[in-house]
Amino acid sequence: MKSSAAIGRRSFFARTGALAAVAGSLEQLSAAQSRPGARPKNIIFMVSDGMSPTVLTLAEHFSLLTRQKGTMWHALYNRPDVQRGLMDMASLNSIVTDSSAASSSWGSGSRIWNGMVNVLPDGTALTPIASIARQQKKRVGLVTTATVTHATPAGFAASTNDRGGENIIAEQYYNNVDVILGGGRSFFDADKRKDGKDVPAEYARRGYTLVRNKQQLMAAHQAPKMLGLFSNSHVPYTIDHRQSEELQREVPTLAEMAEIALGSLSQSSEGFLLQIEGARIDHAAHNNDAAALLWEQMAFDDAIQAVLRFAGKHPDTLIVITSDHGNSNPGMNSMSSKYGGTDACFERLALATRSVERMTPLLGSKAEYSMSFESNSPAANTAAEKIREVVKSSLGFEPTKEHVELIRRSLAGQTGVAANYGLDKPAGVLGLVAGHHNGIQWTSTSHTSDYTLVTALGPGSDRFQGVVRNTDCFRHMCDFMGSNFRNPSMDLQKAKQFMKAARLTKPHLHWV
Ligand SMILES: [Zn+2]
Asked: Distance, CA 327 to ligand 1 centroid (Å)?
């Protein structure tokens, strides 16, 4: 790890040099987009899920710190031929959107209720962009680090009134998606589904190549249709992937999945539509897990590099890079007198070696934390020591006695540990405690209303500058594919009439 002084010295060259590896690609794309009436044959829509605008800066600092190079996304801001804007991602019922309403707004051109996938409040099923693409002879791909049936990929290719119905979504990709890569075996495999259906067998029957690990994925690079499922649930976090030889052997990175998908989809002369999602930026933000979030954002940036390399050889490609909503808005705060300790605190983020998701089970059960540590009983001392050890070995700092007690109370299920109710849960309290060491603080453990960043390049990218309404993306993509199809939409007044019929009252265990 480089010191902050080293980062400062290197930063000018590191930042300006970030695009050197793809300089040729950028020139090709620039020339292609400047031709009058240019229209893309291929569309690559990249989503850093749950990325608050602040993450662009944090990831730049973290990449300079840990990799001695800046990020692609940040460097693209320095090119005059790259379009930049903000995306208004509101859903039909809230200025704070969830991933399913967000992706559906891109995928159908209509704002819908949070929690639904391409369905209006009256139950009208909308036609997703993947079906339009297929009608226009385009091939379609979905690549994600979530379950492939999760809200963001589903918003491009499925239609169902509950985003939690991933078993149903798993059977909706047969007809309109060619390449499906990510996690989510639980929703496909016969021994894990309640109905016992062998869904992968049905994909195989329809000509898909099935892959389950990195080696199989690499071997299948020429397959025209493939279903790749690399974990039961979401793909493991990058921070955990880095620490495990087994995961590195078995599970591809987002950039590797993107490269294979691009190789497969580009075999068609008619072009393709590909969504690439860095899904776990969102999950890390829900956990107020700064290190996991930044490693994840850098993995997404590696996928940007893979996409830019591809586009250099195929400059008739539009690349849109954006996010679906902010999440918990992490920010690096000034630390110590005259902010002088700030850089040193930020550098501590690089000491974390485990995601909060993997750390939490090591802390054990709620019952272990029911006694007050003030009692000084052997059980209380054992529990306190456990918290101290697990936090230190995972996040790279040793919590104080007072902080251990705060974590203990939150793990025991007590409320009122954090005065900000949005942080009053173990992940929020851990985030608060970690912030004393690394300087990152959070507004909540849930989504925010911020306009998201959008960056676009290649033919057609001029449509993505300035303030872009989320629903306009569908219209632009249809136009580029030669379709004038439009889905119906509904205004809020009318939508309220159907509020009771909508399944909004059903509790969701993890609202993401
Ligand atoms: Zn979320």
From this structure: 7
| C-alpha of residue 100 to centroid of ligand 1, in Å | 10
Both tokens of residue 346?
A: 């930020």
- Ligand 1 centroid–CA 31 distance in Å is 37
Cα of 428 from ligand 1 centre, angstroms: 15
* pLDDT tens, residue by residue, 302-337: 999 999 999 999 999 999 999 999 999 999 999 999
- pTM of whole model > 0.85? yes
Q: Does residue 389 lie within any of the structural domains?
A: yes
Query: Residue 63: which domain range?
Result: 40-330+446-486
Q: How far is the CA of 407 from the centre of ligand 1 (A)?
A: 23
Q: In whole angstroms, what is the distance from residue 109 CA to residue 121 CA?
A: 15
User: How far apart are the CA of 279 and the centre of ligand 1, in A?
Assistant: 9
CATH number at residue 229: 3.40.720.10
Q: Is residue 182 located within the same domain as residue 315?
A: yes
The predicted-structure confidence for 332-354, as pLDDT tens digits, reads as follows 999 999 999 999 999 999 999 99
For residue 118, the Cα-to-chain-centroid distance in whole angstroms is: 19
Cα–Cα distance for residue pair 438/434, rounded to 1 Å = 6
Same-domain pairing of 138 and 200: yes
Helices 401-411, 378-395: axis angle to 10 degrees equals: 100
